[in-house]
Specification:
By secondary structure, the protein is mainly β. It has one helix at residues 65-68, and strands spanning 4-9, 20-27, 32-44, 52-58. The radius of gyration is 13 Å and the shape is globular. The chain starts with a strand and ends with a helix.
Length: 71
Amino acid sequence: SKGGCYFEFPRKADVKTGDFLNMTIELSEMNRIYAMPAKVVWTQPRGQAGGFGVGVEFISRGNGNNQQIGL
């Protein structure tokens, strides 16, 4: 989605709803790497690929990164 993302850990991770994460997002097509703060909005014990699923919402930092990557 535009305001967040879904990813999976291979096994249960020590994250829970409400936790804050600092995510590193690499956009190889643009040859850029962004550090984006995010909040865990839900978790799923068995995700789509069989791992521990996590849904996060990106938190705006007001420095233009969100606009540069289309959020």
